[in-house]
User: What shape does this take?
Amino acid sequence: MSRWLFDLGNTRLKCAPLHGDGSMGEVVALAHGPEAFAEELQQLLPEDAESACLASVASAALTASLVEVLTQRFRRISVARSSAGLAGMRIAYAEPARLGVDRFLALLAAHRRGPGPWLIAGVGTALTIDLLDSEGLHRGGRIGPSPGTMRQALHHAAAQLPAEGGDYREFASDTADALASGCEGAALGLIDRSMVQASRMLGQAPTLLLHGGGADMLATHFPDALRAPALVLEGLALWSRVGTAPGTTEC
Assistant: This one.
């Protein structure tokens, strides 16, 4: 009986097998833009498996296309949804459906790691920041553009500005470095301010937990932060073990 986890984001799909002891196997990331995406995924998956757990923040069309592929290989597919609370973690949102399932699962995984408090920063298409106190209560969060998204937006608005390249400098002396420094610096500033405000609110400094495809870019600026590349999948693994978790949908 084989179980797999799938985290479908705006630019990539992360997936991993889930072992019987609750541990994850090797995490594989696939960009879902290329036409070969479905073929690459089919080559990766087992021919006949028991169940798949899916968390998606992608479009309904892309999610449906992934489910179509999964139904060819898995006998049961469960789609995770955000809920008011789970496994001792409670969210701040009055309407749980309005909290992205990726943020919900990241909060769940952080709480599972220890009592915290945690400041969880996900760096993907967006930069998401969530504060979780030592009692497992989500105190709320922020959403902004990630450095990569900022670069793309500037390039779209002014084509002469390169969409990538350059190195972070406190005060850059060329355009590429200035763009990298400004976009990364904006994200660093948002995280720094969140750390300061979280410390004031809670009376103690939270541990910074970085995850997402763009986290490595920022990690060098936060030497005390913990890196969790597959934090959403960690949360999905925990969600899958709950059984009849609130918000479960079967395909």
Notes: The radius of gyration is 19 Å. The chain has two domains: 3-79, 88-231. The helical segments are 37-44, 60-71, 101-113, 147-157, 175-202, 215-219, 231-242. Residues 243-248 have pLDDT under 50 and may be disordered.
